[in-house]
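Hello,

I think I submitted the FE2/S2 (inorganic) cluster job twice by accident. Can you confirm which output corresponds to this input? Input:
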Amino acid sequence: MIRVTIPEGHRGLSLALWLSQAGYSAILPCGGAGRCGNCRVSLLSGKLFDRDDPEKELTPDEGGEVRACRALLPDGETVVGIPDGWDAPGAGQAPRRYVTGALDLGTTTLALRLSDESGAVFETSAANPQCVYGADVASRITATAEKGVKEVQKVLLDRLSSLLSGCTVGRLSVVGNPTMIHIFAGVSPDPIGVSPFTPSFSDRKEFPGALLGLPVGTIVLLPSVKGAGYLGSDLVAGAFAAGTLDFEEPTVYLDLGTNGELLLSTGSRNGGHLYAASCAVGPCFEGAGIGSGVGGIPGAVSRVVRREGEFVFATVDDLPPVGITGSGLIDLFALLLADGVIGRDGKLDEPFALVGRQAFADGTLSPACETPVRIEQRDVRALQTAKAAVRAGIAALLAAAWIDPDEVGTVLLAGSFGRYISPVSAAAIGLLPPGWSDEARAVGNAALEGADRWLSSDECRDGIERIAGSTIVVDLNSSPAFREAFLGGLDF
Ligand code: FES
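Support: Only one job matched these inputs. Its output is below.
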């Protein structure tokens, strides 16, 4: 635990916000809504006030903990204890000069890769401190409208400064969705939030890092899909790095978070045309918006299978179960559908509680035990809507390109979600079309890889520029194929 003293003079400021500005951050799946509990800290001395009733003193729980997102600071000094697992200022950095760096500005997570002259590579990640403003892109746009882009930008730059403390970086390539990139650059993302959702810029930009107060010679913002408000440089760079352009047959690249981003290549034997779309998925694949959902935190149930009639589950870091994350949820739903516990129309007769044996990395199993995982009807509805949106997005892309689902030869699943989900379970709940589970493969954090490769050769730069400049944007709002597939895809 790290002891943090908050000096006097911050009355009324959110404790979560103060901590993030000071460089302390954790993954906050509920985005500060007070539901996930990931922001818990120990109150060691002083007092705090209740966000919902600022005159009322906040009462810590039995363990002396409070949720930082619900706490307001007092006039006087306060001391809190930050639990293990939070990112702290300058954590993990060694003083040092790096020649290149790549940064993936995720809505939830920041991923940084630095390379020095000898070729040594240093990677780190941290929670995006802007999560205090909400979990998704829309809440960040709202925050910039209310507080001004400079304030929301500063929260991010402070975190990056602490990640880079003690370092200098020659060139840093940066990818992210258009909203994150706009805020990083200090440009208001307001136009992305209203129809026709057009960003202020999509092209590559280069400028000195000193302009943002970062110890970087040159910052390069990679290009996004031209004119698209929700198809960012993370999709473009990720699709390139995953090899989407390399296949002869039609290939689909999927990056699922709170937003689903989809890119289809018709394959080199069909002219290599590119189509992309984004759909609002909601936060359930990231574990939020589900009663017992959590992000990919230690103790999150990440896989569920059945062995000899019993549920067997695995958790992140083998810790006791604290909730269920997106990949575990998809597995569990696939099993409950097969059992008829959830009907094909999504009806759940009574809430389900997961009882099963925990499988550990060393191959041992715990005795059967209760878990905090509960599934209720509203959780089923949230997942139905999310999977129908993704599936309909796929249908709309295929329709736009005149490609039949059976013609798709490769499905590339990006990001941490793609790394952990079972394609078989994803097809069983209808997230992927039937038959695609055999074609699916995880490609990890392809966006970061693409950002890194931008700096490595002209060939990579040309490939990324080609995707950004030639991808045809499929507007799902006006796509009859999307509407039809969404309504038809709500059932399992
Ligand atoms: S409970 Fe505080 S961020 Fe989720």
